[in-house]
Amino acid sequence: MDTQRKLEFLADASQYDLACACGTQKDGHRVRGPEGKWLYPVSLPNGGTSILLKTLLSNVCVNQCRYCPFRASRDVPRTTLSAEEIASVFLGYVRQQKIHGLFLSSGVLRDADYTMGRLLAVAALLRKRHQYRGYIHLKIIPGASDAAIAEALSLASAVSLNVEAPHRAAFRQLSPTKDFDRDIVGGIRKIHELTAPGAPYAGVKQTTQFVVGAADEKDADIVRATFGLYRRMKLSRVYFSAYQRGLGDPQLPGERPQEPNGGLPGGGLLGGSDLLTREHRLYQVDWLIRKYGFSDAEIPFQPDGNLSLQADPKTIWAQRNPQFFPLDVNKADRFELLRVPGLGPIAVKRILTLRAEGSRIRSLHELAAVAPRLHGGEKYFKLAR
């Protein structure tokens, strides 16, 4: 293949490594940039979105991850980009000011450190020869040595090592060739040590990603692990990616028919769109954790340990905690206001700004003017008369 064909092939393959690609709008799921399959709108660790060149360096892989369409046992076309090929294409887009940075991952060629060497060669070429000072996100290959991790941190703006599953039992269902504690937890811990305040690479962001629905994990398992990653490992972001059925090992739990009901009205089986809804619910919980001040004990799970597919978790929390309402909209603090369904950080900031200026909200009409997404305000607020 020539470089263009390789890029088309490997960038298309990176669709199976998407994060933060869910959405509630018609075109909100797994979209790509208009100029090519390899230019992706992505959510950045510190918030906001941008356009990155997102590609695999190679889809050759010695691992046997059962959810991955490029696992070693599958007979699929394989190809690899050189460092020079990636750098040339990337810098062309940089000169045209069409992208924010590079997101580079790879299948595992030979072993973890050999693959890390190939990824690091791309970053070093950009940083040292071409003096590129912009955004580079490097995937850390599971099982990478401490030295390879340290070198990646010296070159990257952000790194990620995908946790994939919330505990050992689920991870064993996904991969017989990787060790959860050594290859995943050990690597995440090492990155944390090297990026902590005062450490050599403080300021480099660490993120990770769960594969949702490939194993038989529950949402409660994922949320519990997410809280732990934020608290103990101080990750910048945790992402979630709904398993894309049809390409995994037939024995994988995510490929088998799901139990009836699964949160669907009148029973039924979880299909692809329902997995995207499940992904979306996990992102909503992530916001409750990071932005809304919810504790892990407050996340409202169904009896089966999963989140509801019918309503967002904050709405369900409000339904289960009627004693919390009504709030005095003119006295409630920021975190109390953030508990109200339909109120997000922007609307709450508007309410607090009005109060700081000496104004009072006296009617539902005034409340709707500052919080247009709020519905049923009379259920949640006491208003001044």
Question: Care to describe what's here?
Answer:
The protein is of the alpha/beta class and 385 residues long. The protein has 13 helices and 9 strands. The protein has helices spanning 3-13, 83-95, 112-129, 146-155, 168-174, 180-195, 219-232, 272-290, 313-320, 334-337, 345-356, 364-370, 377-380; strands at 39-43, 49-56, 101-105, 135-139, 158-160, 205-212, 237-242, 327-328, 381-382. Helix 2 packs across helix 3 (112-129), helix 3 packs parallel to helix 4 and helix 7 (219-232) packs parallel to helix 8 (272-290). The longest helix has 19 residues, at 272-290. The model is unreliable at 18-34 and 260-270 (pLDDT under 50).
CATH class of the largest domain: Alpha Beta
Poorly predicted residue ranges? 18-34, 260-270
Strand content: 5-15%
Shape: globular
- Class of secondary structure makeup: alpha/beta
Mean of residue pLDDT values: 87
User: What is the strand arrangement across the widest sheet?
Assistant: 1-2-3-4-5-6-7
Q: Number of DSSP strands?
A: 9
The radius of gyration is: 23 Å
Q: Number of domains in the coordinates?
A: 2
Helix content: 25-40%
Described by strand count, sense and barrel closure, the largest sheet is:
7 strands, mixed
**Tally of separate helices:** 13
What order do the SSEs take from the amino end to the carboxyl end, as H and E? Answer: HEEHEHEHEHHEHEHHEHHHHE
